[in-house]
Specification:
The structure holds two protein chains of two kinds. Chain A is an alpha+beta fold. Chain A has helices at about 15-35, 45-65, 110-120, 175-180, 200; strands at about 75-80, 80-85, 90-95, 125-135, 140-150, 155-160, 195. In chain A, strands 1-2-3-4-5-6 form a six-stranded mixed β-sheet, with helices on both faces. In chain A, helix 1 crosses helix 2 (about 45-65). Residues about 165-180 of chain A have low confidence and may be disordered. Helix content of chain B is about 50%, strand content about 5%. In chain B, strand 4 and strand 5 (about 180-185) form a beta hairpin. Chain B is α+β, with helices and mostly antiparallel strands. Chain B contains 16 helices and five strands. Chain B has four domains: about 1-65, 434 Repressor (Amino-terminal Domain) (Orthogonal Bundle); about 70-235 and about 285-325, no CATH class; about 235-285, no CATH class; about 335-365, no CATH class. A four-stranded mixed β-sheet of chain B has the order 1-4-5-3, sandwiched between helices. The two termini of chain B are about 35 Å apart. The chains are: A alpha+beta, B alpha+beta. The interface between A and B is large, with 47 and 57 residues. Strand 7 (about 195) of chain A pairs antiparallel with strand 2 (about 110) of chain B.
Chain lengths: ~210, ~375
């Protein structure tokens, strides 16, 4: 897995500009849920996960209808699973515990999701997930964007999403120096010429106009 | 003595005159002008002289049996729907006159042979691949910008003429491919990136629409295909997409940097990005709203240096170097006055017996 993976190199939708407000919202929801979990009343990870899921669906759906977000964010069901689309780019969300790994059910792309990615001319075997990393009982640790190999279920790339306090991190800036290395110089053809005509070649001293 | 009605029509359109206006100027009936142009009647010597004086040509101008008159059906206009018929006729006449000079210059030197491949598109989707085939055909590859698009067209045998048609006259470019392949570009808008796109658009017509059946194609479809070609030709999909996606935050600074590299307008790049689904419709609209707010839809920053076609100048130099033909001699042989020659070609004819040929003094052409 590349440690310096820049998700926006996959698609502009995966830039901090779009992911950060979503990560902020998920973080807020997750923290609130973790505060209200009551283990003494029988709440466990499963309860924290379900509550966080329901609230996250609600919060993201509301957000996708708000001015300033609705132009680029869509939230709803991609086939049967809840997910979001940023400028059409589909992402599903899952919660993982500290020890990592990705549950098998999240590693499979749904037909609708795969079709959307195919329409964007991206790698045929990669799908994308927002990973909400938590401690036990839902306390959030990190929110990451991960690339998953749809065939094997392995995480091939992963990057932390900066939250609003560090939204101006370098990832949000165009890295022109990196790009210029990859660029090839422009192709320039030789200037066109008008050759002497055959008649002139045959009679080099001819100065009068041709017939 | 022969009299070419076609040449009368061309000279009249060149000056933007209707048959009635010309008839008034030479004091004959309107129907007589039509009869001359259609070859039904021959003008008397007196009327002929009046026509020459009014249209600013010499008598030999009419003494040509065959004229390669550019027809609208075989030509391509990149224009807005509001372009007037008068403007179109004037541009056609201008190009026909220019074609006469090129015909004459062909007797003094060999122009690059016609090398526009004919690749008709069955569907709009075919155009993407056709643009790539063309880039390979002309040795351009598909992974870098084209440094000089005018050279591509001229090496393929088309002669380019820059003309100031005027903003009010909504013609961006004109082309005609065949015996005399000519591309006329409207440089009035003073936007080199836009002119470059127009040139690529006209090259697209040369590749996609040179087969006979293209004449019956709907104009809208031809224009759409040529636009698609221009985008795909200037911004090949893989290289452009990689560069676009490297612009991590899709910021304007990055887009302007891309403009400096690709030499294509921001608007054309955004359109291409949307076409390749690198951005969705919402983002596309948002970006264009920004362009409008900043006034960049009319005048963009970071314009590339304008391209200078060279083939016509080369031919003039060849005529002088090998045959001592000065612009004044060419004008005389064509039966044109100095004024007509200068306004058609942009080449200034020096006063007196100066034999030195200079193309530096080319003046901006303007259709008025």
């Amino acid at each position: 897995m590349a440690t310096d993976w820049n998700p926006s190199s996959v698609h502009p939708a995966l830039s901090a500009k779009f992911l950060t407000p979503i990560a902020d919202l998920i973080w807020k929801v997750q923290r609130k849920v973790s505060k209200h979990v009551q283990p003494q009343e029988g709440d466990d990870n499963w309860v924290a996960g379900c509550t966080a899921y329901k609230r996250r669906v609600h919060a993201l759906t509301q957000m996708s209808l708000e001015e300033g977000y609705r132009d680029w964010l869509w939230a709803g069901h991609l086939d049967t699973q809840f997910g979001i689309r940023i400028h059409g780019f589909p992402i599903r969300i899952y919660r993982s515990l500290e020890e990592g790994g990705i549950p098998e059910r999240y590693a499979l792309g749904s037909p609708g999701e795969l079709n959307l990615l195919a329409d964007l001319n991206l790698k045929y075997d990669a799908i994308y997930r927002l990973e909400v990393v938590t401690k036990k009982l839902g306390r959030p640790l990190d929110i990451r964007i991960v690339e998953v190999n749809e065939g094997t279920g392995d995480i091939t790339n992963s990057a932390a999403i900066p939250r609003s306090r560090d939204v101006d991190a370098p990832v949000a800036k165009a890295d022109l120096s990196v790009r210029s290395i990859r660029r090839k110089p422009a192709v320039v053809l030789p200037k066109p010429t008008v050759k002497p005509n055959e008649e002139k070649r045959a009679n080099p001293n001819e100065k009068e106009k041709p017939a | 003595m022969t009299f070419s009605g076609a040449r009368l029509r061309v000279a009249r359109s060149f000056h933007g005159l209707t048959q009635r206006e010309l008839a008034d100027k030479v004091s004959v009936a309107n129907s007589l002008i039509a009869a001359f142009e259609n070859g039904v009647k021959q003008p008397s010597d007196e009327i002929r002289e009046a026509l020459c004086a009014t249209l600013r040509v010499e008598e030999p101008y009419f003494d040509v049996a065959h004229t390669d008159e550019f027809q609208e059906a075989e030509s391509n206009f990149r224009r807005r729907i509001t372009a007037s018929g008068k403007t179109k006729r004037q541009v056609l006449a201008r190009a026909t006159m220019f074609g006469m000079v090129i015909d004459r210059l062909r007797t003094f030197g060999e122009f690059p042979p016609f090398n526009f491949p004919s690749f008709p598109a069955k569907t709009l989707g075919d155009v993407e691949g056709i643009a790539e085939r063309c880039r390979y055909h002309w040795g351009l590859g598909i992974d870098a910008p084209i440094g000089d698009v005018a050279s591509v067209a001229e090496n393929a045998g088309a002669v380019i003429l820059n003309v100031d048609i005027g903003t009010a006259e909504k013609v961006d470019a004109f082309s005609r491919f065949g015996q005399n392949s000519v591309i006329v570009l409207n440089t009035e808008k003073d936007s080199p990136s836009r002119t470059l796109f127009s040139l690529a658009h006209e090259i697209g017509h040369g590749v996609l629409h040179q087969h006979a059946s293209a004449r019956s194609m709907p104009l809208d479809l031809k224009e759409t295909e040529a636009d698609y070609f221009a985008g795909a030709f200037l911004l090949p999909r893989d290289a452009f997409a990689a560069d676009f996606l490297a612009n991590r935050a899709l910021d304007w600074e990055g887009l302007l940097d891309m403009k400096r590299y690709w030499r294509v307008s921001l608007q054309a790049m955004l359109h291409r990005a949307h076409q390749l689904r690198l951005i969705d419709a919402a983002e596309y609209r948002l970006r264009f709203k920004k362009l409008s707010v900043w006034g960049w839809r009319k005048e963009e920053p970071e314009e590339p240096a304008p391209e200078q076609p060279v083939l016509f100048g080369e031919a003039m130099q060849r005529a002088y170097a090998d045959y001592r033909k000065r612009p004044a001699d060419l004008a005389k042989e064509l039966g044109w006055t100095r004024d007509i020659f200068e306004s058609t070609t942009g080449v200034l004819i020096p006063d007196g017996g100066d034999t030195k040929l200079s193309l530096v003094g080319r003046r901006p052409l303007r259709i008025s």
